[in-house]
Amino acid sequence: MRSARRFGLLAAGTLGSLLLAAASAAAAPNDSTGMQEISNLFWIVAILGVAIGVFVGIVMVITILKFRIRKGHDKPTFNPNRSSHKLEAAWTIIPAIILLVIGMLAFQTLAFTDTLPQHPDVYVAAIGHQWYWEFWVNYTNGTHVHSVGDLSVPSNVTILMNVTSVDVDHSIFIPALGVHMDAIPGHLNQVWFKPTMPGEFHIECTQFCGLNHYAMVGTLTVTS
Ligand SMILES: [Cu+2]
Question: For the chain, which has fewer Cβ within 10 Å, the N-terminal or C-terminal residue?
Fold first, then answer.
């Protein structure tokens, strides 16, 4: 009984410190509203994953120590309980509930990141070329800004990005903002984001698109 209590305390302590670490990481500012949602989901899954890993590890160590064959014996000194319907029901139902919750949260995140805004503040056309990105930033007041390689947009506005290519398949990726969309010739893909703070962020191509694919990078400048 005492070992069960000690085990419970250990599990609770581990989970508690993990929760604290994750809460502080999740509270750290993110560079876009979409990235905030994605990182919240990431931390929930990461905490659950690590907590379950730690739990299983502890149970394994306890089981190995408790049911081992001790010196001078040819059988374990404890007789393990080999069947328990209650235990089996618990280890079926609890993981099912955890998966259901993760599934619901994942769909919630997808609904946020994949629902295009009806009235974006800024439209950006991102056009893939071998081997550079071309951008048109179209403001709703009618002004256009054209750029090659680098992109500049204001913070705290909703941006709808139309993505295509003029030659081969490319894929635009702005990791810090959680923006990732394929650029396919003859096809228009759309992705949206809302930068939350000024800064400079990497733009990359993540589709191998030829010899100079590695050089297909740029900088997104988010102005205040
Ligand atoms: Cu490319």
Answer: N
